[in-house]
C-alpha cells in the first residue's frame, strides 16, 4: 500500500513540474512573438519598403523638416528602434545630424552591443547609406559627405566601400580646389588685360595730345623769328649785324640709361608709364627731374627719375651758344622691358 502511494505521489510531482515547464516555455514564446511584431517586423517593413534607387534619388525634404526627438539619451531601446524605423521610412538614413536611422541604431548598440535588430538593420541599410553619401560627394556637399562617411565607419569600419567613398571625396575636393584656383587665375588675367587696355588707351590719348601740342609749336616756331627780324630791322641801318636770324638747335640725347623695373611691380606683373619733366643745362646734364604724371601712381616714379637723371644730352644752342632748356619725356614700363 505504501509503495503504491509513493509511486502515485512521484507521478503527481512529475506532472506538476512538467506543467510548470510548459507554462514557462509558453511565456517565453509569447514574449519573443510580441517583440517580433512590435519591433523587428515594423523595422523590416520599413527597410523593405524603400528601394535603393528611391533612397538615392529622392530628396530628403521630409528629413529637413522633421524635428529630432526631445531627449534621445533618455529614450528606451524600444523607443530608439521605433525612431530608427520611422527614420528609415522617411529616408533619413544618415541625415539630418542627430535625427537619422544610423545614429539611432548606433545608440542602441552602445547600450546593447549584441542587439540583433540594430545590427541587422545597419547591415541592410549600409549600401543605401553609402549611396546617399556618394550623392552628396557628387553634389559637392563635402562637409556633409565627410560626416556621413564617418557615421558609416562607426557602423562597419572594415567595409571596403568606405575606402572607395574616401578616395572619391578626396578626388572631388582636389578637383574643386583646382577649378576654384583656375577661376581665380582667369579672373586675375581678365582684370590685368582690362588694365592693360586702359593703360594703352590712356597712353594713346597722351600721345595724341603731345602730337597736337608739338604740331602747334612747330607751326608757331617760324613766326617767332619773323617777329624778331621785324623788330631788328628798325635799327638795321645803325646795327646791321643784328639783322641776322638767330639759329636755335634743340638738345640732343647722346647717352641714355634704361630704368630699372621695380621688383614689387615685377612680382605683381604691373605695367605702366611715367611722364618726367627735367632741365638740360648748358653742359648737357639733366637737372630738376620731376614726375608730372604717371599710371599707376607712385609705382614707377623713382625708377623713372633715377634713370633720367643719368641721361646725357648735347646742350641746346642759340646762335652757337649753349643754354638750358626744359624737356618732357615719357618712360614706358612693360613686362617686356622698361624704356
From TrEMBL:
Q: Which part of the chain is the TonB C-terminal domain?
A: 246-339
InterPro entries, sorted: TonB (IPR003538), TonB-dependent_transducer (IPR051045), TonB/TolA_C (IPR006260), TonB_C (IPR037682)
Q: Which domain of life is it from?
A: Bacteria
Q: How does it sit in the membrane?
A: Single-pass membrane protein
Could you tell me the keywords of this UniProt record?
Cell inner membrane, Cell membrane, Membrane, Protein transport, Signal-anchor, Transmembrane, Transmembrane helix, Transport
Keyword Transferase among record annotations: no
Q: Where is this region: Disordered?
A: 49-73, 175-253
| A GO BP entry | siderophore transport
Which molecular function GO terms apply here?
Answer: energy transducer activity
- State the compartments where it is located: Cell inner membrane
Q: Where is the composition biased (Low complexity)?
A: 52-65, 178-202, 210-228, 235-249
Q: What parts of the sequence cross the membrane?
A: 21-40
Q: Which GO terms describe its cellular component?
A: outer membrane-bounded periplasmic space; plasma membrane
> Where does it mainly reside?
membrane
Name of one Pfam family that matches = TonB_C
Q: Which family does it belong to?
A: Belongs to the TonB family.
Say what the protein does.
Interacts with outer membrane receptor proteins that carry out high-affinity binding and energy dependent uptake into the periplasmic space of specific substrates. It could act to transduce energy from the cytoplasmic membrane to specific energy-requiring processes in the outer membrane, resulting in the release into the periplasm of ligands bound by these outer membrane proteins.
> Know the name of this protein?
Protein TonB
Which species is this UniProt entry from?
Oleiagrimonas soli
Q: What is the lineage of its organism?
A: Bacteria, Pseudomonadati, Pseudomonadota, Gammaproteobacteria, Lysobacterales
